[in-house]
Specification:
Residues 1-126 form the CMP/dCMP-type deaminase domain. Homodimer. By secondary structure, this protein is α/β, with parallel strands linked by helices. It contains five helices and five strands, in the order αββααβαββα. Strands 2-1-3-4-5 form a five-stranded mixed β-sheet. The relative contact order is 0.15.
């Protein structure tokens, strides 16, 4: 499978989040060309700060491999990781991250800052950004347009 194929699976996870009123961000973890875990945002449902798709995915990977190190994995996510998720990715020693849409407001894989390739850390991550960016961006744009319409109707 290609990066685009795996991103399509992350998009399907994002759609699950959108269907329950969550910001539609999804992620998959790949090991030896096999999807071993998938997750999506649940911050609104759980009302916990760390309920991002990447954080759930890393936890699932830790449990699966019985290790905090996810050194042989690639993380695919529909939106550029934020500072919290980028930090967790570094801590998990994930060697490669592929993301869809860039996030000019909170992206820490190049948009605002690039924590993942910063040579001051003891681990750097290979990045591929913009994979299926249009599809990933459209999910977010459509979600927030609908949310504004709903919220406007409540006034």
């Amino acid at each position: 499978m290609t990066d685009e194929d795996y991103m399509s699976l992350a998009i399907e996870e994002a759609k699950k989040a959108g269907q329950i009123g969550e910001v539609p961000i999804g992620a998959v973890l790949v090991h030896n060309n096999e999807v071993v875990a998938s997750a999506y945002n649940l911050r609104e449902s759980l009302q916990t700060t760390a309920s991002h798709a990447e954080m759930f995915l890393i936890e699932k990977g830790n449990a699966l491999f019985k290790s905090w190190r996810l050194e042989d994995c690639t993380l695919y996510v529909t939106l550029e990781p934020c500072q919290m998720c980028a930090g967790a990715i570094l801590q998990a020693r994930i060697p490669r991250v592929v993301f869809g849409a860039y996030d000019p407001k909170a992206g820490c894989a190049g948009s605002i800052i690039n924590l993942l390739e910063d040579e001051r850390f003891n681990h750097q991550v290979e990045l591929a950004g913009g994979v299926k960016a249009d599809a990933c961006s459209a999910l977010l744009t459509d979600f927030f347009k609908k949310l504004r319409v709903v919220n406007k109707g409540k006034k």
